[in-house]
Amino acid sequence: MANLHLSMILSNNDRTQPLLNGSVQPDGIDLAVSSAHPSEMFWRQLHFSDFDISEMSISSLLMAIAHGDTRWVALPIFTSRRFFHTGVLVRSAAGIERPEELKGKRIGVPEYQQTAALWARAALQHEFGVRAQDMEWHMERSEERSHGGATGFQPPEGVKFQRIPADKSIASMLLAGEIDASLLYIADANLVDRSRIDLTGNPAVRTLFKDPAAEGARYYGHTGFFPINHCVVVQRRIYEQHPWVVLNLFNAFSKARDQVAKRAAELASVFFDLGVLPQDRRKVVSADPFFYGVKSNRGLLEAIAGYSHEQGLTPRVLTPEEVFAPQTLDL
Q: Which of 24, 121, 217, 314 is most buried, most CB within 10 Å of its CB?
């Protein structure tokens, strides 16, 4: 039987490289693979369904499903994780020293509904008592170029919200003192985001947390969460015709991740052998925090679904069973 020919688009990161370069391929599937910046990739998929398989914003996917969009079946392949609230930027002259001092401030965000913003707002609320309603939100993406334009996004009730004018950006407003902070800052060139100024090392801005790594460790120790950002989706029409693609894709993505993790461990072992790294860190370095599957991530998945509803993005709390392919629920 001939292989199934499918198109796939992924972000360019370490864990997807073996799929992008073809060194790992799913059984029974010939892939035409493209890569794109996540902002642009999600916009294209949500608006135009350009590709058969893609990474997808979990927040946008929850919203789409909750509003009756049945185009996608999700796979519990989580290619991107980060402690998003540790990356909040503040204007140095704004006098913001603690998260609690964000109350009453003007906050920029590329897109209000994006997963990074969802996790960051959840951390601010549940760790520091700062609610979305306590701040004034300025969103950079236009309705036409936003993910929310395809998911039915409306500013949640009680949230002070406005769009950044087309001739401005998060960067320009931060530097001009027109906003006080940015929940997430994206300067990478893509079709969706407008900021293009590299603010790294710019004395006019700094991270809210003076030691982001330490705050990430504190948050993980308190919550046990290493937040998930992206999953993988397959168009439902393909899944219904060829349900076997789900596990074949899951296995291929897992193999790609393991291949990268093994190579990283091999490189690290050189430093252990040379005595550059302490031997008691070997076990930590060999552990892979990017584990896939519904079963091993259920707590995180239930948390983000709860946060989405809590923040007014979804009308109800979705369960993993409503989002992910049945074959993956026990993985």
A: 121
For residues 100 and 124, the answer to whether their CB atoms sit within 8 Å is: no
Tell whether 318 and 284 lie within a shared domain.
yes
Both 73 and 95 in one domain: the answer is: no
Q: Containing domain of residue 318, as a range?
A: 4-81+227-328
Q: How confident is the model at residue 261 (pLDDT cuts 50, 70, 90)?
A: confident
pLDDT of residue 284: 44
Do 207 and 265 lie in one domain? The reply is: no
- pLDDT tens, position by position, 319-331: 999 999 999 999 9
Over the stretch 127-148, which tens digit does the pLDDT of each residue have?
999 999 999 999 999 999 999 9
Count of the separate structural domains present in the chain: 2
Asked if 243 contacts 264 with a C-beta cutoff of 8 angstroms, the reply is: no
HEC readout, the chain: CCCEEEEEEECCCHHHHHHHCCCCCCCCEEEEEEECCHHHHHHHHHHHCCCCEEEEEHHHHHHHHHCCCCCEEEEEEEEEECCHHHHCEEEHHHCCCCHHHHCCCEEEECCCCCHHHHHHHHHHHHHHCCCHHHCEEEECCCCCCCCHHHHCCCCCCCCEEEECCCCCCHHHHHHHCCCCEECCCCCCCCCCCCCCCCCCCCCCEEECCCCHHHHHHHHHHHHCCCCEEEEEEEEHHHHHHCCCHHHHHHHHHHHHHHHHHHHHHHHHHHHHHHCCCCHHHHHHHHCCCCCCCCHHHHHHHHHHHHHHHHCCCCCCCCCHHHHECHHHCCC
Shared-domain flag, residues 210 and 89? yes
Give the CATH number of the domain where residue 101 resides. Answer: 3.40.190.10
Same domain, yes or no, for 237 and 295?
A: yes
Q: Is the dihedral of CA 164, 166, 170, 175 positive or negative?
A: negative
